[in-house]
């Protein structure tokens, strides 16, 4: 859409530029109007191009930040994946250990049950038969010492059965505690695994969003770069048309410049050949006009433009050169002081320095030139003199 608008804008200007010419005066007027429109359009497109360039720079910075964020997210996802693998390994190991421990519990329960059955059998036998078997053993003793020995043996057997039963119960409790601990560990590991899985999924969503953002920014940059290329092409075409219009106007002397001094001064030397006032050489070329003015008189920019030169130039002394576009320059020489700076955008009538006598000068004066495509032309038609 922006491309179409640029094309139509330029076609509109060209249409106005190619209006039928009725008379010389009307042609000059028409060209002046078109030139002004070209200048305004050019400035507007320049601003648009600058805005697009600035936006591209902002997007590139934003894209760099997004890429850095994405790298961080990828590192975090990788770290979460590693942690998940570690937790999964621990879960697998704990599960395997739990299975072994459960088998140990089964064995311990079996042993305890066996001991319990043995003890219960003894109790039942005693209940049914009393202590007869034990008494038989004691009554059939050969002697009193044999009796005591047999009694000790019976007591030992009873204590031993009781101890074995307690050991079996204790082993069962220990195994049960191990299983409880393993189940708690598995529960904690499972919770950690679920939390890390959620974190990883969240990070992956963020990563996907960053990918979409980076792709969107890249697409916007591509569109803006295409637009800036179109704007540059448009500006180039405008500059060519503007240059052609200025060439026609300068050829006819219709381009008007402001008087370059704050007040009128005597024209002390004209454009063309003359006798050099310093060397006395006859037929010397004079590429501008000289205005005899008191030292310190303000020198004004004859037209808006960009300052190209603010320097000492041999023969010219302190010199300012301003580019007015379309290949048209103005030159101001022999200045006592310079107020403008290279690169400044000056307005028509803006003070750029003071009259002096620097360089090859016989007195205080302003040497003023107009150059079209670097070729000096007579400034008087431009100043309406």
UniProtKB/TrEMBL annotation:
One Gene Ontology term of the molecular function aspect: metalloendopeptidase activity
Residue ranges constituting the M23ase beta-sheet core domain according to the UniProt record: 285-379
Alphabetic keyword roster: Coiled coil, Signal
Coiled-coil regions listed in the entry: 35-97, 158-244
Domain Peptidoglycan hydrolase PcsB coiled-coil, residue spans: 113-178
Keyword Coiled coil: yes
Entry-linked InterPro entries: Cell_wall_metabolism_enzyme, Dup_hybrid_motif, M23ase_b-sheet_dom, PcsB_CC
Signal sequence region: none
Coiled coil found in the keyword field: yes
SUPFAM superfamilies found in the cross-reference section: Duplicated hybrid motif, Tropomyosin
Gene3D superfamilies membership: 6.10.250.3150, Glucose Permease (Domain IIA) (2.70.70.10)
Protein name, UniProt field: Uncharacterized protein
Organism: Paenibacillus antri
